[in-house]
Each structure stands twice: as C-alpha cells, then as structure tokens.
Amino acid sequence: MLIKRVVLDRIAAGEIDLVFRRWRKPTVKAGGQLRTAVGMLDILAVDRLPASRITVRDAQRAGYETKAALTRDLASRPEGDVYRIQVALGGEDPRIALRNRADLSDDDRAELDARLARLDTASKTGPWTRTYLELLADNPHVRAEDLADSLGLDKPTFKNNVRKLKALGLTISHSPGYEVSPRGWADQSLSR
C-alpha cells in the first residue's frame, strides 16, 4: 500500500489515523506493518464497507475536509471494494539501527556473507552484490539512473537490487543516490 509522504507526515504527527482504499482484495492485513519513509506503520484494522457508510468523522480522521472529497478520491478508481484501514506510527524503521551497527562479530560477518552469497546465487545474471557495493562506495549520492546505466541495467532492476542490500542494512538511500552504510563498510573489504 503506497501512501503519499504528506499523508505519512500527518500520520506521524498524530493528525491522521485512517486510510481509505478501493481494492479488489486488500494488500494489507490487521496486525501487519509497513515500512515507510517516516518509520514503521502499524495496521490496526482493515474493514470492508460500502462507501455510503463512511462518516464525516471518518473522512476527517483520514485527512479530508469533507466526506465528498474522500468519496471523490475513491471514485477515481471504480473497481473494487472500499476498505477502511486504521493505522498508527509503529516506531523507527529497524534498518536504520541495523545499518549503523558497525561492530560486527565474526558470526555477524559470516551470516551477512552467506546472505549475500544467496543473493548472488539466486541471480539470473550472476553475482552482483560486490559489484553494487563497490559502485555505491565509489559513487555516493549519484542518481540511480546513472548508476544503472553504468552497469547496462534499467533503473527498476538496479533499484530493486539496491533495496535487497538495504534490507540487510548495507546501504543508505538519499535523494539523489545511495551510500554504503557503516555496517556495509564493516562487512566488506571496501577501500574508503
């Protein structure tokens, strides 16, 4: 479930605690979490309901001034059922603490190396993790499109792979570009 940054900021500020979507089937479930630009988002409840049952208070809790404005937005996607999703800020993205941990034990390094090896082995194009980390180390804050071009890749493929490294706490995203995290430097034999 994609949520605009302005809405995420208002959720973080405690101004919004409902999100409405029109879906063929829900993409989130109660008890789940989403990783967002403002931290983890807890999904407290997901309820299907007819648009006619949306209240003025619901619309306000979702950040709309009027119920009509919310129903107009929902009508822009005519297929699917309306879902009311109750959300709350669930804390900091755990990748932030992970990426800043540079004090790796031998076991930590072995586990990371094994996970990187699995990513390389699963790749249809061959090993890539080391190449990416070296590229990011040598080119901090360079646009993803330029980095992808330098490898002869399309931008979505490149960014998807960088997300895999980020999930391991090895990279930091910026606007623009990326950099190797303290954890990434500690795990790799990269030269600064």
Number of strands: 6
Spell the H/E element sequence.
HEEEHHEHHHHHEEH
Distance between the termini: 38 Å
How does the helix and strand content classify structurally? alpha+beta
- Report the sheet with the most strands, covering strand number, pairing sense and barrel closure: 4 strands, antiparallel
| Structural shape | elongated
**SS element count, helices:** 9
Q: Helicity level, as a percent range? A: 40-55%
What gyration radius follows from the Cα positions, in whole Å? Answer: 20 Å
Q: Give unreliable regions as ranges.
A: none
Strand-residue proportion: 15-25%
Mean pLDDT: 92
Strands across the major sheet, in which order? 1-4-3-2
Characteristics:
elongated; single chain; alpha+beta; four-stranded antiparallel β-sheet; 192 residues
Q: Care to describe what's here?
A:
It is a single chain. With 192 residues, the chain is an alpha+beta fold. 43% of the residues lie in helices and 19% in strands. The chain is built from nine helices and six strands; from the N terminus they run αβββααβαααααββα. It has helices at 5-12, 56-61, 67-75, 94-100, 106-122, 129-138, 144-150, 155-167, 182-187, and strands spanning 18-23, 33-36, 39-48, 81-91, 171-173, 178-180. Strands 1-4-3-2 form a four-stranded antiparallel beta sheet. β5 (171-173) and β6 (178-180) form a beta hairpin. The protein is elongated, with a radius of gyration of 20 Å. The two termini are 38 Å apart. The model has no long low-confidence stretch (mean pLDDT 92).
